[in-house]
């Protein structure tokens, strides 16, 4: 029996593809670089499904694959690299994996909160440099427990961050387009407007998608509302924060620090940001655990299997597409 053909757009963990390979013939881009469009179109010209990792999928690609491709299964939660409207017009389902990544993303949010507040990177550098002038006034950091955390975005990840916050005995404020009974039941958090959150939170953490309405959601005006002792955390999408305004705020002491896993022009970051001691930088690795990578691959495989069987997949972003 001929197996359905699937193309994986970037190098992924082999273990994460085990389930997919049980039913499908899998071809994978052997590197991390995104293929030029002409080469990519040649690779997918006979594929029944595409497992998408960061690769841009535009209307031209959708048109080229519509006769044979049933699904564009994005491997992560973000899908702003895929033209969902074009895929829908071409009868191609698009899915994402919000459930698979929420735990590791929430864990990493707290890793950044603690690393930034307690100056862990500076502590590590201090010890590695062989410094012997240890003392009670060295590398004073910010208290985390018994403070106030402000969570912007009350979806799966925001709720998971809030659940972890309970153990730190913090006051939890949150905001979103509307109050969330699910968030409040899980965290006992209090719904407030954006301005109230920014003015009162000691830690502000972002968990919203990249949309026109969230572009530069945190800019100069919002940073000026925050406490001078506050710390901003972004594991969402880079363009949610005006990076130039953030650089200025960190330099000027408008806020005390930041922990960033995402950037506006990845992998490039705004010049000057890396030189600042009050920011912790990570290369978009919030979901980077073997456990999560395998969960992502298995979830993508199940979405692809459903599409191949003519069923609307779980986490389908465009169920109106005929598939």
Automatic annotation (TrEMBL):
Coiled coil: none annotated. Residues 8-318 form the D-isomer specific 2-hydroxyacid dehydrogenase catalytic domain. GO terms for cellular component: cytosol. Belongs to the D-isomer specific 2-hydroxyacid dehydrogenase family. One of its GO terms (molecular function) is NAD binding. It comes from Pelosinus propionicus DSM 13327. Gene3D superfamilies: NAD(P)-binding Rossmann-like Domain. PANTHER family: 2-HYDROXYACID DEHYDROGENASE-RELATED, GLYOXYLATE REDUCTASE 1. Pfam families: 2-Hacid_dh, 2-Hacid_dh_C. Residues 111-286 form the D-isomer specific 2-hydroxyacid dehydrogenase NAD-binding domain. Keywords: NAD, Oxidoreductase. CDD domains: GDH. PROSITE patterns: D_2_HYDROXYACID_DH_1, D_2_HYDROXYACID_DH_2, D_2_HYDROXYACID_DH_3. This is Lactate dehydrogenase.
